[in-house]
Amino acid sequence: MRKTLIKFFDKLEDGVRIRLSHRAISYAFVGGAATLLFWRGAWRTFDHIENLGGIFGILFSPEVSLILSIAVLLLTGLFVSVFIGERVIISGLKQEKKIFDKTESEIKEEEGLLFEVKLTMDKLRVDVSEIKEIMEGKKRKEP
Prior knowledge:
The chain is mostly helical.
């Protein structure tokens, strides 16, 4: 039952994502609104916990929350990726266009190049295996 439910929502998510990816501005509004609602709910929940007082009042105070969150984000390596994103950093280092500035043909061209690289790597892997077999066969024949 659990796997069926997960599979259902996975397929639903794929369908929604595919449809929205062709409408970038709509996708941004839907994603932005959902993100804001999520964080608003989290914020209000933590405010409620803070209002309980005691140790929770201290832990969820603005100053301690800020310090704890920065520490956790730094320790887990998420600080930069959460606020900037790996793709932005990598594309900046490579001096590439942002992904949404690329045309569909540029993206398909990159996919084609990646596929060619994969095929080449697979062929090299087979070649190396064959060379290893030949070398091992020569070692066995030597007296």
